[in-house]
Amino acid sequence: MQTGKITRRELLIGSSVMALGALSSSAHSAFLPNSGGVGFPLPWPYKKIDPQEAASISYNGFYTAACCYGTAKGILMPLQRLVGEPYTLVPLPEAIASGRGGIAGWGTTCGALVGAAVVAGFIAPLDAAESIIRDLFHWFGETSFPIYEPVSAKNVVRTRSASNSPLCHIAAGKWCKKAGKPFKHPEREEWCARLTADVTAQAVTLLNSWSEGTLGSGRRNPRTVYGAPAQYNCLECHSGGVPEMKKP
Amino acid sequence: MQTGKITRRELLIGSSVMALGALSSSAHSAFLPNSGGVGFPLPWPYKKIDPQEAASISYNGFYTAACCYGTAKGILMPLQRLVGEPYTLVPLPEAIASGRGGIAGWGTTCGALVGAAVVAGFIAPLDAAESIIRDLFHWFGETSFPIYEPVSAKNVVRTRSASNSPLCHIAAGKWCKKAGKPFKHPEREEWCARLTADVTAQAVTLLNSWSEGTLGSGRRNPRTVYGAPAQYNCLECHSGGVPEMKKP
């Protein structure tokens, strides 16, 4: 792009306008580096990776910096080896580590899902990334975790549990209730570590399918199905399904 | 770092182990570029920016690619001008645009909050980023939106509403109920656009305070307060507070 006659500020402001067309079409070429920059335009190159290798990195990554760091590290470390730059230049797993505990401990979206969603957005165009994320969120709610069996387990986990929700507080809370154990327990931590590995393996499987052109259209946007952003299982909350607080 | 005698794979595997110490201390120097890479280690340089300039960029950014893109663009575009690289090299707002609608339309964490949280993690060390995020989430729930008044408004919005929740489905749903309007309505869209500007201005205010050393310790991690990841207002959900579904 010829930038000789416009300022960097005009370029940057222009990028916001150009983003409209880009995001509505290929969804990802909206980024304009400044006139002195090189930049790493989206989508970043992807090569198929081994879901089990990624899961193993994520399991160990969980014990380094928890769930959000774990899924991001599991997907990105193989891409650092297979692709190199720009994956080797941007410390994305460390930057989004605050996604842990449903984002900074608030119990909202499971941090493992947040990590996978953020990474997918660097690899796949927006529409494809959202299809991958919706498939991943839906699979997450229906899956009884953990599936992953570590080669060298940090702890045991005796209870498997499904959440019917992508929310950390609900997913972990249901496990705690079923297991009869508090959140602050090595088995719950191991449950989250293996769940993190499982989310990574599933995200990689979806990314591999997308890269082969076999992903399909994915699930519809809940906004379209329900007329508002929502989970697929309204009555999970809207039918007195949320338990009363126990008396202390 | 001298890498002459170890392979890239060893380096990458090593980075995961080194991350443990790094994340438990400064939280951010865990990233190792490959032996051919330069890398942009965390935290990225920050210069104080104008909350109102950032809010204005976010408001317009919302109408480009919605809430998550909007907050990220509002914070990062001024930093592209004031700092330059690495902000000019990484298309972060476009990469995380799928955060819209509570992440790909699932109604989980408000996308405006997700965008601000991801950006904060590149700027502030993990502990500080999490303090900023917790303050932002708490402020979000208690604030009656919108506050922001666009210089050139795309639509009107007649109803102000507070959510008591960082979740998109709950925040937008409460606005729709109070306004008596469906989610798919120009006033709801304008409400989200101005809320996105408000979240950006508040995030920038917190980042500026952090950069001046006046942020303080912030709110405690809900995991510590409640023994599990959670909001601060348990009875919002755990007291029959979730309405029954209306009959179609």
Report on the structure:
2 copies of one chain form a homodimer. By secondary structure, chain A is an all-alpha fold. Chain A has a domain at 51-217. Helices cover 51% and strands 0% of the residues of chain A. Chain A has 8 helices and no strands. In chain A, helix 2 crosses helix 4 (111-123) and helix 5 (126-142) crosses helix 7 (186-212). Chain A is globular. Chains A and B meet through helix 1, helix 2, helix 3, helix 4 and helix 5 of A and helix 1, helix 2, helix 3, helix 4 and helix 5 of B.
Nearest-angstrom radius of gyration of chain A? 20 Å
Unreliable residue runs of chain A: 1-37
Order of helices and strands of chain A: HHHHHHHH
What percent of the residues of chain A sit in helical stretches (DSSP H or I)? 40-55%
Please give the number of β-strands of chain A: 0
| Oligomer kind | homodimer
Structural category of chain A is mainly alpha
Which secondary structure elements does this structure contain, and how are they paired or packed?
2 copies of one chain form a homodimer.
Chain A: H1 8-24, H2 51-82, H3 92-95, H4 111-123, H5 126-142, H6 168-179, H7 186-212, H8 222-226
Summarize the structure.
Chain A has 248 residues and is mainly alpha-helical. Chain A has 8 helices and no strands.
